[in-house]
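Trying the structure run again after the queue cleared.
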Amino acid sequence: MKFGIIGAGATGLAAAYDLSSKGHEVKIYEASDFIGGHASTFQVAGSELEKGYHHWFTNDTDIISLMDEVGLKEIIEWFPSSVGTYQNGKVYKFLSPLDLMKYTPLGFMDRIRMGLSSLQIRYIKDWHKLESISAKEWLIGNTNTEIYHAFWEPMLRGKFGEENYEKVSMAWIWGKMTTRFASRKNILAKEVLGYPNGSFSHLFQLLAKICESNSAEIFLSTQIKRIRGSNSGDVFMTIGQQEKEEAFDAVIASTPSHIFDRLTEGLSKEYRSKLLNIEYMAAVLIVLVLKHPLSDVYWLNIADRSVPFIGIIEHTNLVGSERYKGRHIVYLSNYLSEDHELYKMTGNELFDTYLPHLKKINPDFTADWVKEYHHHKIPNAQPVVDTNYGKNIPAHQTGIQNLYLANTSQVYPQDRGTNYSVAMGRKMAHLALLNLKNE
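Done. Tokens:
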């Protein structure tokens, strides 16, 4: 069988690995000049580093199993995480549930209420009941407005933007929190996170190498211009600048939904409507390389909306600075619509906008701590998971015979990540083969 795969990220490479390992002909087309998709890397201090922060939870079993399968499980290292929230000029740590009692932006009884509501979320089994209710409505109804405004609203607003945060489904909060709960051995234990020694690029490079050894071909900087089905069941793709049309037994596309809509002929009106109903936020990162640590927290949520970014992820507070020649790696994170003024800024403009706020986190910080910085934009990084989102997700089977869609908008209710992308890619490979066998 001959398979076409659009995208050389975690989904596309996982699908290609399974298909090529079974002896099938596989061609992978990637519009960028690199592999890895949202988890692609660049060089810092002689080491590879993800353009956007990444880690694994202990229950990310699909990608951990794949690492084991290809002989890389031994490079996964596990570290105790540290989480905090910046509010009212102070960093509050949340290393254990007991730290909630020290969160003085809330009164004592509100801290109790917030802790009980987190336990309530932890023990919800049927998340489908949460789909039709917004996170705002559920959180206010099960705590109060003071707790919502002090803790939850700033994060939802920062993650999904002014225009979207009030419509985010409580099912998304459930998926986010249960993933984090699962990375703790018990309710009082610290969260444990995984990271591969040498970065995520080890997995992607090895998958590409295995695929190529199985005679798969990877075409970088190659755009797909058009996709169409046929009465025979073949799927035709128009490829690259020469716009050469080629036939495949099946095609798996990992493009964002609106791009898939633009490329594909013959989709039903109902399916197109679901594709175009998906809204995305872009991830915008400034990655700092510092002489000194900015804080002693790995994941710092910014609940103070006077600060123009929503998160500080200090990578070297998880994995240590020794692998980066003693430098400290800090991501300043934002999720923005592409028409937002911060999204439109150059790297220099964004750095200058962010820089004064770092002194709020660490009063000792000075600009000369910054040895270098990097600016990355990742379009279509975060689907907006609004109420009743599950009813509007486009199906993997697109309605065109042997054409499949597998992208982050279809990871639900869990938040998108490399684990779910790998699982989805392998699932699509299996489904495509099964359907071809049954034709």
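The mean pLDDT is 93. Worth checking whether this holds up in the mutant runs.
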